[in-house]
Design brief:
The protein has helices spanning about 1-30, 45-55, 55-75, 125-190, 195-230, 250-260, 265-285, 330-400, 405-440, and strands at about 80-90, 105-120, 290-300, 315-325. With about 525 residues, the chain is α+β, with helices and mostly antiparallel strands. It folds into two domains: about 15-20 and about 40-80 and about 125-285 and about 330-455, Outer membrane efflux proteins (OEP) (Up-down Bundle), CATH 1.20.1600; about 80-90 and about 100-120 and about 290-325, Outer membrane efflux proteins (OEP), CATH 2.20.200. Strands 1-2-3-4 form a four-stranded antiparallel sheet, with no helix packed on it. The longest helix is centred in the C-terminal third of the chain and has 68 residues, at about 330-400.
Amino acid sequence: MRKSWTFWASALGAPAAVATFAVAATPLLAQSASPSVAPSSTMAALARHVVTSSPDIAAQRQQVRIAEARLQAAEAGYLPTIEANGTVQRREIDIKNGSTANDARYNAGQAGIEARLRFYDGDRTYNSVKIAKAELEATSAGLDAITSDTLLELLTSAADVHLNRKILEYSQAQSEAIGEQLRATSRRLEFGEATRTDEELARARLATSQAGVLAATEELGVDGHRFRNVSGQSGTMVPPLPPLAPIPSSLAAAQKAALDNEPRLRAARLNAQAGKSGVKLAVGALLPQLDAVSGYDYLTGGAANTFTGRYPDDRSSLYYGLELRVPIFLPRDHAEVRRARAVRDQRLSQTDIALRTVAEDVASSWTRWQSAKSTIIAAEAAVAATQEAAEGIKKEAVGGNRTLTDVLNAQNELLSARVTLERAHRNEFVARASLLAATGRLDAKAILDGRCCGAATIERPGMSALGRPVAAGAGKGPTDPSASSRPQMSSLGSAPDRAPDRPTDGETAAPAPTGRPASSSLGRKLN
């Protein structure tokens, strides 16, 4: 009995350590939450908050402002320019081999104002405006792309948190069930009804299950921090997954929508248009330039930067006319034309790349969505069948027709089926969100209010019945947990209620079951 008490302490201590580790990871996420921002209760409200507060989106929004300023600068080329200048000098003129007159030392002052209006510049202003408009629209498309990527990352991280929370709950339930089986097997070993191999096998499965709990806790913590990085909200307060806007009815419709709306493809096309206008802009530098010029100058004392000496009277002049500039040999401008043509060709190639990438993303998202829907149907059938099989194996193990290995394998298959179903639900949701993003339709309006798939709250699943005896008062309300401090013995270690009936005359005895292994002599008590 001393050995038995030691085992009970070790079997109860390991799950407690796992539970302590799993619970301890939660405050880390809670402490990392931003205290200045109230958590959002719905994903739609959180998405609207992320669009206005995300630093990535804010940086791209500033880039749009830069593009707007460039457009204003380009449009200013249509307006006239007015420039004023003035000069004040003290001049002392040294007349060589001559007399020094009184007008050799004087103060000279000159002021002028000039207005210039460009009539023709080789369409450089026109093409500059076209380039600025295309770049502004491309930058706005880039803002839509950054917003779509951020919202997709928000939905994906939230789905991963919900998935790993479910996996952790299922893993904890399995670990508790295997712990009960281990304790029941130890009891049976004391009475010689189990083998040392059964006990060690149950202990190994318990350790493996605890490792699975730790791995699920780790993944939950990582995904929680990733969710906080995107949303600014603690990973312990993830809203339920929301319903999304309708997706196209077919792959062809999705591809057509992507060709018209996908933001990166729109940005690539607009950049290609800017590249074409850039070539015309560079060629315009080789064409003549015609300006209308008008101005007024005022001179006092004497002319600056001349040797005429002091003027007896102040004077002014008004001028106006046309100014023509004809380029003849400008090597740098010719090189700029070659560079602009190379940029144009590069952006046309980038448009082809973006077109192929968009088609691939749409097809991949559509395929994943279809596959996830089929997987959900198959996984639901697998969970129902595996649960029924697990219940049957448990009952057969009580009668000796199944071994402990069969029971533990059934537990693993049930856990795997449940995890597969939860992962399929996660993949279906993420695939729909990815399809909306690939077609250019994922924005804050595409995330609707409510809960996805009619889900209410995430509840902890019931413990697997494989390691838990059926309560006598099941269905009559909860029992008092303080009634028994010691865990109840699993039905695997309990004796049959009554001995099997003896065969009557004329009947043959049923053969003894052979599926149950013989008891090992290591666990038998000496007479």
